[in-house]
Amino acid sequence: MAMIAITGGTGFVGRHLIRMGIGRGHHIRALTRRDQPPAPHLDWISGALDRPDSLARLVEGADAVIHVAGVINAASRHGFAAGNIAGTEAMIAAAEGAGVRRFIHVSSLAAREPGLSDYGWSKLRSEELLKHGGGRSLDWTIIRPPAVYGPGDREMLELFRMARRGFVALPPAGRFSVIAAEDLCRLLLDLIDAPASHGHSYEPDDGTIEGWDHRDFALALGQAIGRRVRPLSMPARLLHAASFADGLVRRGRAKLTRDRVRYFCHPDWVSTHAARPPASLWRAEIATPDGLKATADWYRREGWL
């Protein structure tokens, strides 16, 4: 089995990835800023993406790097650049310095529209580091996930809470793809020993060809919760006003930033069919209605919902 170096291991996707990797018999080394409880087959490395010494310890002797860490919300372009561009550049340098060739980079579907948001711009720049920068000596694969959900996720939690109250407010009409965290992590681990994937970028999803209409997804959330919901389409101008208010109240801690509103209001976040991973390598196993139900059940057990 492999020694895998993981960034973002304390986050939502990272925790699923560590658990699944250990379950497959791999030994995991993961980066953390804070003390973590010990676990078999898991070594926590104290450090951060801006501390090269800790990255050197993280990747030493590793068979593969899975770079999950990234900034999804920031007050400025500088914040996205520091986390997503400089952080990726530092991981590439660490991998090359340690002689680790396999590098799996978790980007985002947002990279497809770099002019739309600072987040998407920073994710595309991080990809370019692998394709055209120092990462050219690595056996890299880029994954562009769509919206990821599952137990432990706080990003989609508010949608579940709205559904419990009988309504789901979503951006203007559009379509988007989703993927269960378990399916995404299974793909990331499958890629470790997949030479045919070297130098490729993939856009995985739940297998729904044309993605989800916002209304249909709201209804699916209602079914997962066990009650009828009313989908509400929020006009873009109202979302922008809410973003302005959130910025005034929470300033640098605002969640609904202008960057996010531009991202949310884009009408097409459907994974490109031709960019899906080949079926011989991976295919989604979790139907979204089942995954949403399992997520809602987990939220209830943990007292989140």
UniProtKB/TrEMBL annotation:
Q: Which residues cross the membrane?
A: none
Pfam family membership, one: Epimerase
Q: Which InterPro entries match?
A: Epimerase_deHydtase, NAD(P)-bd_dom_sf, NAD(P)-dependent_oxidoreduct
Q: Which domain of life is it from?
A: Bacteria
Which GO MF terms does the UniProt record name? aldehyde dehydrogenase (NAD+) activity
An annotated GO cellular component? cytoplasm
Domain NAD-dependent epimerase/dehydratase stretches: 4-160
Name used for this protein in its record: Epimerase
Q: Which organism is it from?
A: Sphingomonas oleivorans
